Amino acid sequence: MQGNQIALPMFGKVKVVLHRPIPGGFKIKTASVTKKADGYYLTLSLEDPTVPEIKPDFNPDKITGIDVGLKEFLTTSDGETVSIPQHYRKAQKRLRVLQKRVSRRKKGSNRRQKAVKQLGKQHKKVADKRKDFHFNTANHLLSKYDVIAHEDLNVKGLARTRLATSVLDAGWSSFLLILTNKAVNAGLLVVPVSAHNTSQDCSTCGEKVPKKLHIRWHECPHCGCSLDRDHNAAINIRSRAEGHPVLKAQRLLSNSRIGCEARALSVLR
Ligand SMILES: [Zn+2]
């Protein structure tokens, strides 16, 4: 690629050997020249003007906690539930049927080959449906809240529980990845909190109210709090995030900003 020219404000036109083409639509932000044994090297850093610069400026009080459930995909601390769509469940059921079909058929047979092909197609279908559902759910939550707290599910021991199966089936971890990426791009916050006893502790008085997995209702004998089990857990998750250092800092920041605005107003008056 001998003979390329690049116009740089600080150098004027410079003849260069391009090692990589410069993608269209980008602005050259900085250029630096280094001298190496075999000549001069020009390093450019590019800026994509279509990507907005993110300044985190969220309202720390627009916060919710989300709990992953066995029955529902998630429950928020406001008591809203998001279910796994029927069409996704159906597609997953069909996937299991096709998996069995493959394992039943004789290795190397044409019929098995055909079943393998069907299985591959169904895998793709399930993955697409799941991704759609995850994107829609993430968008929905981030349009309502600035801060979303969830249980940190990177815990040993979870793998053996019944909840783990439901978490895996619904692709909880890939949902959290999508949610976190979307939040970061919008300058919002997703906070993992400790999952310890979120469903056992009472969200009103803090007393421990032990209950087995099949008990769907939280009934506190200490304070009389009566709530859906997952709703109670979601409130605990939100409470745990409220002490998060980033949220505290943001709260201080927004308080001091309000303070400044109030001062400015009184000066104007
Ligand atoms: Zn209580």
Describe the fold and architecture.
- By secondary structure, this protein is α+β, with helices and mostly antiparallel strands.
- It has helices at about 85-105, 110-145, 160-170, 170-185, 230-240, 245-269; strands at about 5-10, 10-15, 25-35, 40-45, 65-70, 75, 80, 145-150, 190-195, 215-220, 225-230.
- Strand 10 (about 215-220) and strand 11 (about 225-230) form a beta hairpin.
- It is flat and about 80 Å long.
- About 25% of the residues are buried.
- The model has no long low-confidence stretch (mean pLDDT about 85).
- Bound molecules: zinc ion.
- Zinc ion binds near residues 204, 207 and 222.
* Structural shape: flat
Order of strands, main sheet, comes to: 7-6-5-8-9
Q: Please, how many helices? A: 6
Distance between the termini: 66 Å
The ligands found in this model are: zinc ion
How much of the sequence is in beta strands? Answer: 15-25%
Find the count of extended strands (DSSP E, 2+ residues).
11
Uncertain stretches: none
Radius of gyration: 27 Å
Along the chain, the helix and strand elements come as EEEEEEEHHEHHEEEHH
Mean pLDDT rating: 83
Percent in helix:
40-55%
Q: What is the makeup of the main sheet? A: 5 strands, mixed
Structural class: alpha+beta
